[in-house]
Amino acid sequence: MTYSIPNIQSTVLSMSLLLLLLIILELIVKKYLLVKEPNKISDTNGKSVNRWVKGLLAIISFIVFFFVLDTTNINALKWFWLALFIVSMGQHTFMEWRYLKGSKEYIISLLKLAVGLIYILIFIF
Predict the structure, then answer these.
(1) Beta strand spans in 49-120 (E)
(2) Which helix (H) or strand (E) segment is 26 a member of?
(3) pLDDT confidence band for 1 (50 / 70 / 90)
(4) pLDDT at 6
(5) Residue 106 and residue 56: Cα distance in Å, rounded?
(6) Average pLDDT value for residue range 16-35
(7) Segment 91-116 mean pLDDT
(8) What's the total number of domains in the chain?
(9) CA neighbor of 61 nearest in space, from 44, 36, 86, 33
(10) At what angle do helices 47-63 and 74-99 cross, to 10 degrees?
């Protein structure tokens, strides 16, 4: 099954709009709901764990995308990006919850995960 260029371009446009939406959402939530100074995982004991997990996720994603995935199949690409979004945001949320005790930063990540999933399921699938 072949796909036309406009179909691929619309998917890329949808993913770009999702990125923009998540950035705006994070800025709004941080400004109005979190009054404290934001914490970072890199300021805690979880710095090395977070780097290793993100690096491993990047390597696995690279290998799957270039050597396993059929990049001519737009449906396979959509599922790949959906799975990657869920795993990466889930990992980020867990790391914030685990290492930023007393902080509500993980709520922002959970909100971004939920909004991102809803957006992907409505506009991309």
Answers:
(1) none
(2) helix 5-32
(3) very low
(4) 62
(5) 21
(6) 84
(7) 90
(8) 1
(9) 86
(10) 170
